[in-house]
Amino acid sequence: MDRTAGKELALAPLQDWGEETEDGAVYSVSLRRQLSQRLSRGTGPAGCQAPRPAADAFVHYRTSKVRALRAARLERLVRELVSGDREQDPGFVPAFLATHRAFVSTARVLGLLLPPPPPPLPPGIEIEKTEGGGLRVNKNLRAVVSVLGSWLRDHPQDFRDPPTHPDLGSVCTFLGWAAPAGPEAQEAEKLLGDFLEEAERKQEEEQPESRTGPPGAAQTPRPDSPEGCSEEEEGPAREGPELLDFGVDEVAEQLTLMDVELFSKVRPCECLGSVWSQRDRPGATSTAPTVRATVTQFNMVIGCVLGSVLGEQGLAAPQRAQRLEKWIRIAQRCRELRNFSSLRAILSALQSNPIYRLKRSWGAVSRERLSTFRKLSQIFSDENNHLSSREMLSQEEATESPQEEDTLLGSLPSKLPPGPVPYLGTFLTDLVMLDTALPDMLEGDLINFEKRRKEWEILAHIQQLQKRCRSYCLSPRAPVLAALRDQRQLSEEQSYRVSRVIEPPAASCPSSPRIRRRISLTKRLSAKLSRERGSSPGGSPGDPSSPASSLSPGSPPSSPRSRDPPPGSPPASPGPQSPSTKLLPLSLDPPGLRPSALPLSSSHISLPGQQGSEARVIRVSIDNDHGNLYRSILLTSQDKAPSVVQRALQKHNVAQPWARDYQLFQVLPGDRELLIPDNANVFYAMSPAAPGDFVLRRKEGARPTTTVSSP
């Protein structure tokens, strides 16, 4: 339809119109408003000015209906890959390819996507071929080839299945007859060859290691013995300079180099909440290896800060203050290098209770460095859901280097500076929130693909940042990297014990810097649910944050025995964090650490669109032999115990008909538990002051359960 107006109407370019159902699939419908072609043109040079309406002319608009698949069964989703309208819904194919592992295996998708080979032709009959050498096939078959090309290019690791990689073999077989000379077939063959060559090379490397042990094992940093905190028991001193003997720029640049290499290798699909939450399952040590590598690096940086500041007990306060100042300067340099990952790690270590409580050391830190420390700490303030870091990250992505602008011609597009390197925990938190707050399935056994679109927006942001990180030009410095690897590592328990030896507990610590930090997951959840229901005018689906599935990515480190009030902090706002038990951010339970309670606010939140309904996120584990495994679920003020138990079992992939065989307990401080009666409203029966951790236990005499494997 065409619309005319005397001036441009204040209408959004895309307006929600509602939903449509077709063949069991649900589509969201929007109206797109575009300028028509009947416009006056400007008087500028030909080809240099876009069409524009004359000042006194009528403006013509064309409104068209746009449909996007919102929910459907798996078969319909796969069919949409081939038959969908790419112009109307350009995001469907990349969103499906990036998130499909959350609800279906790659082999299952290929089984539905790949058609069978054509029957052999009778002798003497030839078939017309395309310029590329492939058969003259129908439109759908060409669409399948196109989808496979995107899949191989953007997500090659989806086809890794050693030792024979059968899924990739099926793709090669299909492309061998559908498009034998096309780039897709060449890409598939090359990928299969790379996988096999990599396996052979790995096997050759493992053979000498089986006899002599892995090379470099002696250089692997190890936590000190839990019994030994004295310098005499530290073992032989390493040869060469210590980490802080190097310059600020050298250390910050090498940290950035390591973070860039690891972040560039992250597979975005491993960040999905449903994938990352599987990491604690028995036998799931190979789950999300690229994300685990960034976690290990993050914790290594924290360990370096703790070890260098606390490692030598005999230092005087001014000497230890020099080390604090050095790390603050390194953090500032990481900020200048746009490395938010190591910046967050250093700040988390400095804000940890073992370091933060050292009042005499902090008292010797200069005012200038303390001011820098406070400003940097505000970047990751939890009070506004890390809003400062999110805004700063967006600004960094849009910032252009002034030096590069001066050197480029005015007619050429300016080159963006490298980075930034983000703190990955922010994205993990966002994705776990999405996985927790939005259902996987909708009524009628339809896959909630709208949830996958929201996840894809975050994954696409990660991919965009990875491309920007490729432009870093940093060279490795072997001495600095060796010092990083060999830096003494202290466990959480040891750090706190050494800290108390350095400065015994005191009633107050007025010299430590005050940093106000509060965890507010309720704000995160409220914002996410508001966006899902369209009630939030601002913000994008990529902005939410969430609790972690098993551990909180956003929690700074603290000591499990931290009973001293953090220095210089009022009781209501205990310094950089509350004295409750927390792990290092993104911790994967290294030796000496144990799972922490998810920091949940005791306040409640209102669910948009549900008057009088409140909610909070809780974590539920099962008391069985599958390990300490938590799943986050959304608890509303309307939920009774049976429905909570049923949803928790569904999250744990346990057969739901056995929900009546379980009892729900809330975990309270002091190794106590609160039994939730079977017919009680869990929201009001639980203790609001305690963390939202629950455990399911089978009732006496109940049947043993069987875990259902995920697709």
TrEMBL record:
Q: Which GO terms describe its biological process?
A: Ras protein signal transduction
- Residue ranges with Polar residues bias: 599-613
Q: Does the keyword Nucleus apply?
A: no
Q: Coiled coil where?
A: none
Which segments show compositional bias classed as Pro residues?
554-577
Q: Where is the composition biased (Basic and acidic residues)?
A: 199-209
Ras-associating domain residues are 614-701
Which species is this UniProt entry from?
A: Canis lupus dingo
Q: Where is the composition biased (Low complexity)?
A: 504-513, 542-553
Q: What is this protein called?
A: Ral guanine nucleotide dissociation stimulator like 3
Q: Where is the composition biased (Acidic residues)?
A: 397-407
